[in-house]
Specification:
single chain, 119 residues, alpha+beta, Ubiquitin-like (UB roll), five-stranded mixed beta sheet, 13% helix, 18% strand, globular
Amino acid sequence: MPQLTVEGVGTFFVPAGKRLVLVLEDEAKIDQLHSCGGHARCTTCRVKFISGEPTKVTQAERSILAARGLGAEAGLRLSCQITCDHDMRVMAISRLAGSGKEDVGPRPADIITPPPVWT
């Protein structure tokens, strides 16, 4: 069972294959933003990887990060486009607290959306 460490929050055993955005909500119990509902359209679900960054990226994630000038060199990834299949350490940098938003957004589906095209 993979472990997710969220800086300043804790370390959690997570179900293999679960979307990172849902692990942050369900297991870590943090107020992770996902304004578009986890469809790789808004970038509000960003996390910064400290270690264990996945090597594969969905085309949807690559496209929206590039469009927003948030390339991989910054270490930023979209938690809605990542499944937990190995140990990871992240900083949750996009949270409801202090965002001015009313809520975190609609709950993302259990599977990556749009259907992933891996690059």
